[in-house]
What we know:
alpha/beta, 50% helix, four-stranded parallel β-sheet
Amino acid sequence: MLLTPHLNTDISPCNAELQAHIANSLQILTEALTRYGLDNVAIAFNGGKDCTVLLHLLYIALQKLDHTKIITLCIETDAVFDELEEFIKVSQQTYKLSMIKFSGKIKAGLFQLGQVAPTSRLY
């Protein structure tokens, strides 16, 4: 069963403690976007749960700034399941990701990102 991203940006159904954590995360992301510029912030995304949560938080922060472009670094490995590959594709379409894909090791991918988008800050 393929899970698809859900673009709900309303955090009010969350309990108060979780709302506080989300608000703090959004404040940090908004500060980074303001400090470095909307087109100079990138996120590493491999379809895992941690980076999917961060992707959604970044999406919410960008929505509040009336901006939708999310620069995304995806480092592909040989050990990717078909379902994960499909989830990454669906996420790319759903969040309208500007995805830069590299194969191999993380260090090499980060070096290549520096060549392609030298002003980007990666989160």
